[in-house]
Amino acid sequence: MSKEPHRPTLKNPRSRRGVPPSEEQWEVFLEELRQHATVKRAAKAAKIHHSTVYERLAKDEVFRRVVEEALEVGAVALEQEAIRRAVEGVKEPVFYQGQKVDTVTRYSDTLLIFLLKGLKPERYKDRHEHTGPGGGPIQVISIEVVPPDDA
User: Residue ranges of region Disordered (predicted)?
Assistant: First the structure.
């Protein structure tokens, strides 16, 4: 009785080279991308290896534009979720002696800070740039102080 040697199998046989993803898989990828704006997550949901996505992006200009549009939609969705968490908060359970006794609403100050920095960078940016008149360079004047002669 001959035993075949063990061959490692891919988690997703449909993502093997030589077997291109179907149009349905690409649609799943784009829909997931529109929701979460993460290529790797969208590729996993569509059962496409992320390297396959990047290969197609490098070769297919139309696909690249569609992906950029999907990423923009996804970015808006993420921004809306960040606003919700920062302003409305997230309900979290409160436990006492292993039992859920209540819920508390947690707000994200960090998300709020990032949202403000993005929406009003001129007011909330971390660094301040110092410039001269009209945005030009600051002029530096050196004055040398010479002690009087003791003659």
Answer: 1-21
Give the CA angle between residues 17, 21, 27 to the nearest 5°: 155
Cβ-in-10-Å burial (0-12, 13-18, 19+) of 96 comes to: exposed
Q: How long, in residues, is the chain?
A: 151
Number of domains in the chain: 2
**Residue-wise pLDDT tens digits, 65-89:** 999 999 999 999 999 999 999 999 9
Q: Are residues 20 and 51 in the same domain?
A: yes
Is residue 102 helix, strand or coil?
Answer: strand
In a domain, 20, yes or no: yes
Q: For residue 48, which amino acid is it?
A: I
Mark whether 43 and 94 lie in a shared domain: no
What residues are paired with 94 via a beta bridge? 102
**pTM higher than 0.85:** no
What letter represents residue 58's amino acid?
A
Cα–Cα distance measured from residue 37 to residue 72, given in angstroms and rounded to the nearest whole number: 8
* Domain, as residue range, for 95: 89-126
Domain presence at residue 143: no
For residue range 108-124, what is the model confidence (pLDDT) as tens digits? 999 999 999 988 888 88
